[in-house]
Specification:
The complex is a heterodimer of chains A (292) and B (262).
Chain A (H helix, E strand, L loop, with lengths): L1 H26 L3 H22 L4 H24 L5 H22 L8 H6 L9 E3 L5 E4 H19 L1 H9 L1 H6 L4 H42 L3 H26 L3 H19 L5 H11 L1
Antiparallel strand pairs in A: 1-2
Chain B lengths: L9 E10 L2 E11 L4 E5 L6 H8 L7 E6 L11 E4 L13 H13 L7 H13 L15 H14 L4 E5 L7 H16 L3 E5 L6 H4 L2 E6 L1 E7 H4 L2 H8 L2 H13 L9
Parallel strand pairs in B: 3-7, 3-8, 5-6, 6-7
Antiparallel strand pairs in B: 1-2, 1-4, 8-9
Helix pairs in contact in B: 2-3, 2-4, 3-4, 4-5
Classes of the chains: A mainly alpha (292), B alpha/beta (262).
Chain lengths: 292, 262
C-alpha cells in the first residue's frame, strides 16, 4: 500500500509540473516543441551520465537542460536562418538528436546504467524500490519523488514570480518587445524549464508519454475555461486525477502505469471535448436544438 | 514636399530597412512635430508598418537612425505606446479585457512587481475612455472586431505615454467604433500627445489628421495635411493605381456599393 502511494505521488508531481508548463506551450502553439525537447534531451542525459559516472540527478538535469535549450535554439535557427517551416525544423532537429541518444545508449550499454525501454516508456512501478539513502545510511524514501518534487517547486516559483512576463510574451510578443520585455529571454527560460521537467519525468513516464502529460491536461483545461489562471489550476487538478486513475487502471488490467496514465489523460480530454460548458460538442448541439 | 520642424516628437534620418537584403524602406528623412495627429499613407507594401516597427526597434534598421524627442528609442521606451495590428494576436487566448489592458502597465511595473491600486485605477480609467468599462470581465474571444480594437487602444492609453504608434486601428471596425476612436485620438492630440497612425482609407484622411506622411518605399511627402494631401503628391505615392482607387472610393461614397466589414 505504501508503494502505491509513492507511485501515485511521483506521478502526480510529474503530471502537475508538466501541466503547468504545458499551458504556456499550447498557448504559444508550441506543443510539438515540448515533444521535440522530451526526445532531444536523451543525448544530454547519456553524456551527463558518462561524465559523472552515476545517475547523479543534478548533473543529469543540467546536461538535459542545456541540450533542451540547444534544441530550441536549433529549431529557431533552422526556421529563421534556414527559411525552413517551423514544423519541418522541429522534425529535423529532434529526430537526429534522439537518434544520437539511442546510439549512445546502445554503444555504451555496458557502462551506462540506462535501458532503452526504460528511457522510452519509463517505469514508474520501480519508483518505490529506487530509494535515496544518505551517506549516514538513513533511508529518505524514493529518489524520484525528491527530484520531481524539487522540479515542481521550481516550476511553481518560476510561473508565479514571472507570470506577468510569461503571460505577455505568450499573448503579444511584439507589444512585449516594444515595452522592453525580451521575448527571446522568456522563450529560452520557458524551454529550459520544459527540458528540466522532461528529465525529471523521464524515469517515471519516459520520453514518449511525457508529451501526453505536457499537452493533454492543458488542452483539456483550455476547453473548460477562458481564464489563464484557471486553465493552469485545472491542469494541475487533472494531473492529480490522471495519476490516481492511471494507477488503478494499470492495476485493473495489470499493465504499464505510465501507459494507463496517458489513457486516463486522453479519457479526460474526450470528456471535456464532449461536455465542456462552452465548447463541448454535445452542449453545443443541445443549445442549437433549444434555439431551433 | 518635406516639412522639417524644430524640436520634433519623431525624427527619422536616412532610415533604411531591408528584409533579406531587399530594401523595403529607402533613406527616409522626416520629422513629426509634437502634439500632431499624423497618418502614414501609401499603397500596399509601401513599408508603412515597417516604418513603425523600425522606430520601435522591432526590426533592425539597416542604416540611418530614428529618434524620439531627440533620444534613442531604448531611452524613452516608457514615453512610447504601440498598438499592433489587431490580427497579430490570438483573440481566443484565455484572457479578459481587463487582463489585456493591464498589460499596458507592465512596462512601468518592471520585473517582480505586481499591479497596485494606482495601476488598477489607470486601467479602469482607460477602459472608461474607450467605453468598455462594462466589458472588463468579458473574455476577449467574445469581442467584436471593433471592441477588440477599443481594448488595444485602452491598453495603449494605460501606458500613459507621450507618443503613440498605431498600426491600422481602423481596419475592420464598425462605424461607431471608428468615430469613438477618432474622437479619443483628437482629444489626445489636444492634450499635446503625438499620435502616428498607419491609415488605409484616403477618404477620411482630411477629416481625421492634421499631418500626413506619404510613403512608397521612399518618402514621397511629409507635412501638414493641406500641403501634402494634394492630387499631385497622391498620384506620386500611389502611381497609376490611384485613379482606380479614387473612382472606387467615389462610388462607395455615393453608396452604389455597400461597404463591407473586413
Amino acid at each position: 500500500m505504501e508503494s502505491a502511494l509513492w507511485i501515485i505521488l511521483a506521478g502526480t508531481l510529474v503530471a502537475t509540473s508538466c501541466g503547468i508548463l504545458g499551458c504556456f506551450l499550447i498557448l504559444r502553439k508550441m506543443a510539438m516543441v515540448g515533444d521535440a525537447i522530451s526526445h532531444a534531451v536523451l543525448p544530454g542525459i547519456v553524456i551527463a551520465f558518462l561524465i559523472s559516472g552515476s545517475r547523479d540527478s543534478v548533473t543529469m538535469l543540467i546536461g538535459a537542460g542545456l541540450i533542451g535549450i540547444l534544441t530550441t535554439f536549433l529549431i529557431e535557427f533552422f526556421h529563421k536562418k534556414g527559411k525552413l517551416q517551423t514544423d519541418a525544423s522541429i522534425g529535423v532537429t529532434f529526430t537526429w538528436l534522439f537518434a544520437i541518444g539511442v546510439i549512445m545508449i546502445t554503444a555504451f550499454a555496458g557502462q551506462v546504467d540506462l535501458d532503452q525501454d526504460c528511457v522510452l516508456y519509463g517505469e514508474i512501478a520501480y519508483v518505490p524500490i529506487d530509494l535515496w539513502i544518505t551517506d549516514g545510511g538513513t533511508v529518505m524514501g524514493p529518489r524520484v519523488v525528491y527530484i520531481a518534487g524539487t522540479v515542481l517547486v521550481l516550476n511553481i516559483l518560476f510561473v508565479s514570480i514571472f507570470y506577468k512576463e510569461l503571460f505577455l510574451t505568450t499573448f503579444d510578443p511584439a507589444f512585449a518587445s516594444a515595452i522592453g520585455i525580451s521575448t527571446a529571454l522568456w522563450h529560452y527560460l520557458l524551454m529550459g524549464a520544459v527540458s528540466v521537467t522532461t528529465v525529471a519525468s523521464f524515469e517515471s513516464v519516459g520520453a514518449i508519454l511525457v508529451v501526453a502529460l505536457l499537452v493533454a491536461p492543458p488542452a483539456t483545461a483550455y476547453l473548460l475555461t477562458h481564464k489563464l489562471k484557471q486553465m493552469i489550476l485545472i491542469s494541475v487538478i487533472l494531473g492529480v486525477l490522471i495519476s490516481i486513475s492511471g494507477y488503478f487502471i494499470a492495476l485493473l488490467f495489470d499493465g504499464s502505469i505510465a501507459g494507463a496514465m496517458a489513457i486516463a489523460a486522453g479519457f479526460f480530454f474526450a470528456l471535456s471535448y464532449l461536455f465542456s460548458p462552452q465548447n463541448g460538442i454535445l452542449i453545443k448541439k443541445k443549445i442549437d436544438m433549444v434555439e431551433a | 514636399m518635406n516639412i522639417q520642424v524644430e524640436d520634433p516628437a519623431l525624427e527619422l534620418h536616412d532610415l533604411t530597412v531591408a528584409y533579406d537584403k531587399k530594401p523595403v524602406l529607402w533613406g527616409i528623412d522626416l520629422t513629426v512635430p509634437k502634439g500632431k495627429l499624423a497618418c502614414i499613407c501609401g499603397p500596399n507594401g509601401a513599408g508603412k508598418s515597417t516604418l513603425i516597427k523600425a522606430v520601435m526597434d522591432l526590426i533592425p534598421a539597416t542604416g540611418g537612425y530614428s529618434k524620439i524627442f531627440g533620444k534613442e528609442f531604448s531611452e524613452v521606451r516608457k514615453e512610447v505606446s504601440y498598438v499592433p495590428q489587431r490580427e497579430t494576436v490570438d483573440w481566443d487566448f484565455p484572457a479578459s479585457v481587463y487582463d489585456v489592458v493591464m498589460m499596458g502597465r507592465y512596462g512601468e511595473l518592471g520585473l517582480f512587481k505586481r499591479p497596485r491600486m494606482a495601476d488598477r485605477e489607470v486601467v479602469m480609467d482607460s477602459l472608461r475612455k474607450v467605453g468598455m468599462e462594462n466589458f472588463k470581465d468579458r473574455q476577449i474571444s467574445q469581442l467584436s472586431g471593433g471592441q477588440q480594437q477599443r481594448v488595444f487602444l485602452a491598453r495603449a492609453l494605460a501606458q500613459q505615454s507621450e507618443v503613440y504608434f498605431m498600426d491600422e486601428p481602423f481596419a475592420g471596425v464598425d462605424a461607431a467604433t471608428e468615430k469613438a476612436i477618432v474622437s479619443i485620438l483628437k482629444e489626445m492630440s489636444e492634450n499635446d500627445k503625438t499620435v502616428i497612425v498607419v491609415h488605409h482609407d484616403l477618404q477620411s484622411v482630411e477629416k481625421y489628421f492634421d499631418w500626413v506622411i506619404l510613403l512608397n518605399l521612399r518618402l514621397v511627402a511629409s507635412g501638414p495635411t493641406e500641403d501634402v494631401f494634394t492630387n499631385e503628391l497622391l498620384q506620386e505615392a500611389y502611381g497609376g493605381k490611384l485613379s482606380l482607387l479614387s473612382e472606387v472610393g467615389n462610388l462607395m461614397k455615393q453608396k452604389k456599393f455597400p461597404q463591407r466589414e473586413k
